[in-house]
Structures are given as C-alpha cells and as structure tokens.
Write a structure and sequence with these properties.
The protein is of the alpha/beta class. The protein has four helices and four strands; from the N terminus they run H-H-E-H-E-H-E-E. Helices cover about 35% and strands about 20% of the residues.
Length: about 100
C-alpha cells in the first residue's frame, strides 16, 4: 500500500482532483483539516498545503507509518465510536468504501 499510494496513477490522479476541489473551498491559511482513515498517509502531504492537518487511522502499522513519514499528528481511531480528537475542524476528508 505504501508504494502504491505514491506511484500508482489512480492515487496520483485522485490526489490532484482532491487538491483542486479543496483549493476552491477558500479555506483560511491556518484551517484545521482532519483526514479520517488516512491509511499510510498518501494524502497528508497534499493536505498540508491547505492548512494544519491531523489524521486518524484504525490500523496501527498504517497510523505509525503515516505519522513517521509525514510529520502529521496521526492517532488511532475509527468512526463513529472512537474519534481521538475533541476539537472542531474546518474540513474533514474521508475515504468512503462500500462492499457489495
């Protein structure tokens, strides 16, 4: 996953689209951004261009890897029962998947 999220065309293109959409949100320079389910941190550096980023991730290895490689405060947590932050955020980004 760590290699794929950096190099695979799908993740690179998805990051560009998300970056462009967030750029149109007119966030303040110090906007507080939370990525929910950050995985190994593939989006965190891009999100840091838009404000102060925090993240949460269920998987212990992924959370530690993301924190180590991006210098973002990544805490273990999950929705809806274990959100490891008490403060409010200006923007939250999450990956929604559905199994069929």
């Amino acid at each position: 996953m760590t290699k794929q999220q950096k190099e695979h065309w799908w993740f690179k293109a998805r990051r560009k689209i998300i970056d462009k959409i967030i750029s149109k949100c007119n966030l303040l320079n110090n906007a507080k951004i939370l990525e929910i389910g950050c995985g190994t941190g593939g989006n965190l550096l891009m999100l840091k261009k838009h404000g102060n980023v925090s993240a949460m991730e269920l998987d212990e290895f992924a959370a530690e890897y993301a924190a180590h490689t991006t210098d973002v405060d990544v805490r273990r947590g999950w929705l809806p029962d274990n959100i490891p932050y008490n403060e409010k955020f200006d923007l939250s980004v999450t990956k929604i998947e559905q199994s069929y």
